[in-house]
Structures are given as structure tokens and as C-alpha cells.
């Protein structure tokens, strides 16, 4: 709550950009005294009916008194917010704090009346819903807990805004007016409503960029070459289905068209609507272009221009100004410094990128920040040379450049309900909002596979986002928990994508292996063991195997109920009975088609002919006619420069537009169709066609299969995520009172031993008491009180948890042993005040573990578990889960570490009490989830015995919790 001296200060942190229901953007900000003219102009554009609904009477114009009232706020008891586009109001909302008598009041009154007014032209865009979220957040900040609104019964749209918001509310009808009262505390339903609206809005905003009805290329050069002219050519060659426009202010006034496309000197000169503008002008001229586009009603921008955050501090400020400028007109941006976007849908056929060739249509969505990575991804999926096929196609492709506005989160929202995308592949150089990304990834992964290569870079330059403090490995673990298929390289990204795009998910880890090479079969067997799969003994068909032998063996394996997937290995064979490449391809296709419920993979070695034969029958092979024009090929498949129809060179080189570097050296996996495309034109999709992915190495095939097995297991478990159990002995209110009292001492503090034990005790966690022993006599008295045997420990920071240094003496049975141990410790490590000795009762023998929880400002609360000592400190063998942790999460957390067998009776040892350990994890999770002020908890060591456990060390840190942006109103990243 503001004091009287500062209650009138402008609350700049209330300003926010939001995405509306139709995908456009608006800016929400407080209304000030400077907005009088804007308010009057806004009101003049509102219909008489809307005015009547707002004031319950005819109200044709605002009086001077009205204008003063609606523009003068104290930002505490009276607050007004406006939604603006192009600097002009499109909607307003205000609240006035009231007392129990319904009259104006000040705190501690916690109720306010709220009222909206939305310009008729913008009704139905979700503006009122967005304003309600923001005014509710403002009210909560100012101590208001409840809103009241009076609405005429005929104003059904506004009633629906309130009733659909998901808040707990009461409704009454009196004197011809509907009165709604609702609490402002977020509920599960209100959060679900908010996130559903967020998904629809952000999905629509990306759809406007990927499926425009018309496109203007601003910066089209007069001469061939150059970025703008190249993109225009790519759009034409792809066969974009809507109108195209070439724009360049340097065009002669009498120039009517260029390359058959209407030419204009300015976007303003285009008579018809423009949905998307591709901006390829120098950075200094971009602001002028943005203004022209905004005034013309352009819906979105793809900015290819460089010279922004990648170029230093000045460019960073230029980038921030660009985003603010575009959002002011309701436009979203891909870029700047972008490679472009592609949509292969037949209804769109958009290649608004620097890729000279349209990828084959398919079911894979691609996202990359870097243009170079985008080229590599496209070429790996496209290439068919070098004995490897790469025929699975692309649905949409986004290369976001500096990712100033549209991010991977936005594209995930689009892919989630995109019927043309079955698999999402993402190369993320950084994750700017890990909390939101994991939430979206979990929802997306429940519907379709999401494969991610995660870079270790920092947040995008120019973004005002909180950086995560979590190690890279921890973030990766959290992504896997959210169902993300986390891989390390682009090769693995494509390998997994090819398998997941066209094969069913395996129902288990059992793998059948068959082929004509015993050695390759054994390599595949070993690779399966290394990846945690359960391979069956390889079946060697010998090098004399015919196509019929392959068909029969594959059919038997697919019918075998003891296997969940099949890997076929093939090497070149010489002999009269050896199958031709085409025959072998047909044998594999027909056998797999008869049993489509199990995944089939092929490992082939230098079968260039087979790869060509297999790819020739695929449903995504290039069309003879349509792509001949795009690729410059002749109808018989030859290219004018002697290249191959697939875009490669006769020697398997790099396709046009690609790079020879890594992409050419490490060729991607390919795929073979399991159904013949006979009867269809070359390249036409065949309904029901599946592809068998083919890999040049056993390790790559098995790694992709292992990822599919793990993902399928996650899908099964995600259907029943478990529950967060309640414990009757938890005293949440008592813990809250203690925390409030402790935080009153300062902003952040590490608790002492007594406070730590008291706080943990409220949650049923009882560390064993450790009594300081500054002298041998104190140690003897403490031991007598605790009862022998005891442990004597040095707790100085450099000796804590370092039993390997000798700072711990265990099983001291009597005072004589205790005093002797005390003398040894002080002789070895220094004076008592330096080593800080303590005495503790002995705990039952068991396995030493460590439990930690930390609240990260970007990712949220994270619970971690591992074995104490070298396993966690040296090897990093820790497992992590996002809080709140369910009972199933706790069970899997314990079993996720590599050293977990030590807990379950490894080499004949006695298994320990893992149910007690799971309960401890759940109690710690409840503590940090219930009290975000608990920013760090460490329990080390936790000795888990065959029956029960003992917490021997504990530390807790308190601090004001970081802001939860996922619980507040919807906003775009701030600049």
C-alpha cells in the first residue's frame, strides 16, 4: 500500500502489452490527466447503445466534470486503465474503492466497484477479458479483495466477461439491474480460463504470421539479387496463394510491376489489405516502414534486417524501440535479423524466407533462432544424396533471429492445436521463460512429441526477463520431466523427428533385431543395452538372405508379442540370390504395412542404391511438374547444371542454399514408405502412408528408438500424474506465523538451528538435535544428555559434510572415547572455535542422501535429490522435479539417479526405507509450495535406514519471494 506522500506516483509497472483473442496486440496502461483528449475522442466513437449499457441512461457526451473524474486517479482507491492501439484508446476500465455502505472509501475497505467500456469496433476481440485480468491484479496489489459490478440484463456480453472469468462470484437481481460480486483471489478455474485464453490468443497471433492472405515485401530491389528480391522470388516460386506486392520507395513512379508482381513505392499506396509485411530494408529505415504498415492495418512483420541487439548496446536499444513501435499498432514481429518463415500447406504455400527452395510438405514443425541452424535443419530433412534418404517433410518453419517478440513459446502455442503438425522440433539457444516453457511443453507433449536441442546461451539480448540461476543440466532435467524429448545435437534432433513423425510409439523397451549381418546385429544389440533397452538376441539372416527372407522375418518379429519394436539391419550383399534394392524396399514396406502398430527402423550401411529405391516410392518425393519449376529441373529429372532432382549434386553434395560444413558431413537419417504410392502422381501424399526411418549407424537408430520408448512411457504416466498428499500433522498457519515473524527481522536470512528445527517441525520434519560443544566438558555433558553412543562432528564450512577429511567421529560409546576423539579433532584441524564441534546422537546405519529445494526466479521452485558425498558433488548425480511434487513424482525422483540401486539392495545389501524417503520429499515440497518465502532448504545428510530415516543436518533460508509472473495477468515480455 502506498503512503500518502507517494500514492499519486505513476505506476509504470502496470504498463503491459497483451495479445488479444484475434492475435492482434494492445497496450494496457494507467489513465492519466494527459489523456483527456484521447478519452473524449474514444467516447465519441462508442455507439449510443454501448454508452447506455455503461451509464444506464442516454449519455451522448462526456461533461468536463466527467472527463476530470475519469482522468484523475490516485492509483490506490481510484484507478483507471486503458487499452490502446496506435496510441488511441480502444477500451477503458476503472475501479472505485467502496465501503460497506457502497460509498467511496479508503483502506482498509477491500471492495471496489468496476466498470468497462469497449469501443464497438473492438468488441469481440477479448479486450474486456484482458482488462479484467489486469485491473484485478492492480486491485489485489492495492489491498482490494473483491469486485462488484452492476450490469443491465441486456448487456449479455459484459455479463459473460464476468461469469467466464472463473472467479468465485455471487449474482443477484434488483431494481432491474444484475449485481455481480466476485473474489479476486485466483482460483484453479480462473487460472485455467486465463491460460486457455492465452493459448488461443498467442496461437492466433502466430497463425496471422504463418497463414497470411496477402504479403508485401518491403525492400524489394530493382535489380536481381539482394535479400528483398530473393524473398520475393522465393514467394513466387513456392506458389503463394494470395496477392503479392513489391515495395521500395526507390522504385520509379511509372514502375507498375516487377517479376510480374505489382510494385509500389509505399505500403500506403497498396489499395487492398496487406496481412504480412516482409521487411528487408536497412535498420535506419525500419521505423518508417513500421509506421506505414501500422497505419495501413498490416497484421504482422517478419523483419530480416540486421543491425539490432546482435550488434551491441545501440542495436539493443534500436530493437527495443522496434518492438514498442510495432506493438503500438497491434502488430507482432518475427525477428529482427530473422531467416524467415515457411508454411507448406497447400492452402498457403508460403516461403517468406531466404531458403531458395520450398521444403517438401510434411508433418514436422521446425523452430530455430539461428538462420544457420535453420538452414542445417531444412537441408538435413531435405537431402536425399549420399546413400541416405531424407524424405519426411515440413509443415511449418520459423527462424526467429533475435527473437525480440515472437518466441518459441508462441510457436508452441500454435503447434499445440495445428492439425498439420504431428511432431515439433526446436533448437533453442536459450529459454527466456523456463516456467512458462515447461508448462506449455507439458501440455504439448501430452498431444504430440516435442524434441528439443537446448543451447547453453544466455537470454535473448534486449529482453527484460529474469535469468535462471539453475545449472544447464538441471534445466534439461526439468524439460524431460515436462515430457520434452531432450537431445544434444541437430543430428539427434532430426533422427528422433523422423522416427516420431511416421511411426507409432513403442509400448515398451523390448526390441527385436534382424538382418543379414551378424556383426551389425551385435552392434545394434550392444547399443540397445547402452540405451537401457531390452534387446532380444539378434536374428542373423546371413548374407544370402533374399527379399522374401527379410519379409518373412520382419512379419514374424512384428507378430511376436515379446517385442515392442523392430530394428532391421542391412548391408550390401553380393550373389545371385541377393535382393535388389527395390525388392528389399518393397519387402520391408509390405511386411510393416501388415502390422502398423509397432515401430520399425532400418540400419543400413552404404546402400546408396537402396536409399534411392526406397525414397523413390515415398509419399513426399518431389512432384515432377510443380517442383521442376521451383528447382529449375527439367521434366526428366535432370537439372540444367547437372545436379540431381533432390537438390543435391551427383556426388551427394550439398543442396542449393545449404552449407557444406556440418550438414554435409553428418548426413541425416532417411525414411522409406511402408505403402506404395502406386497410382498417385509422383510426390502426392497417399492417405495412410507411413514411413520407415532409415539410419546410417546402429547407434543413431537405437538412440532415437530409446527416446521414443522414454517418451511413450512419459505419455502413459502423464495420463495419471498422481496427487499431492495431505498430512494431518502439517501446521501451515503456524509455519506462516513463524515465517512472518522471522522476516520482520530483515529482507533475507539464513535461520539458526532452533528456528530451522521449529519451522521444519511444523511440516513433520524433525532433524536430530546437534548440541554445540565448545569444550570437551561441554561435549561430555551433551553426550550424557543425549545418551551414548554419539557422534562428534566438526561443522566449520570447510569441514561440513566432508567425512572424507576425518572431521567426523562415529559410535563413541563412552566419555573416554569422546574426549579422545575431541582431542584428535582439535589436534588435526585447529581450535574448537575454528572447527565448531557438535555432538549428536547416533542414527541407525543406512544410506546417506541429500534433499534440496530452491526457488529459482525464472523456473520456480525445484526439488532435488541425490546421494550425499561424491555421487552428487563430483559426478552431479542429482535428480530434479518442479514443485509441487506428486506422489508419483517422488517415487520417480528417487529412482532417477544413477546410484539409485544403492537404495534397493545393490549387491546383497539391505534395501532402505524408500517410502519414508518419498514422504520426506513430499513434505519438503509442501513446505516450499505453501510458503514461497522459503527460498532454499537443504537437508544433508539424510540417513535412510532399513526402517525410517534420520535428518542429521538442515538449513533454511527465508527471503521475500520472487514475483510469480505465471499467476498474474497475461502479458508479453517487457522492453
Describe the model.
- α10 (371-382) crosses α14, α12 runs parallel beside α13 and α28 packs across α29.
- The strands form 6 sheets. This protein has an 8-stranded mixed β-sheet, with helices on both faces. It has a 7-stranded mixed β-sheet with strand order 11-12-10-9-13-14-15, sandwiched between helices. It has a 7-stranded mixed β-sheet with strand order 17-16-19-18-20-21-22, with helices on both faces.
- It has 29 helices and 40 strands.
- It is flat and about 100 Å long.
- The two termini are 26 Å apart.
- Helices cover 34% and strands 21% of the residues.
- The chain has 975 residues and is an alpha/beta fold.
What are the main properties of this structure?
disordered N terminus; 975 residues; 7-stranded mixed sheet; 29 helices; 40 strands; 8-stranded mixed sheet
- Taking the alpha carbons of the first and last residues, their distance comes to 26 Å
Major sheet characteristics? 8 strands, mixed
Which regions contain 5 or more consecutive residues with pLDDT less than 50? 1-6, 384-390, 614-669, 671-689
The global form is flat
Assembly state: single chain
Kindly state the percentage of residues in helix: 25-40%
| Tally of helical segments | 29
How many DSSP-defined strands? 40
- Roughly what is the average pLDDT, rounded to an integer? 85
Rg (C-alpha, Å): 33 Å
| SSE-based structural type | alpha/beta
Which percent range describes the beta-strand content?
15-25%
Strand order of the largest sheet: 1-2-3-4-5-6-8-7
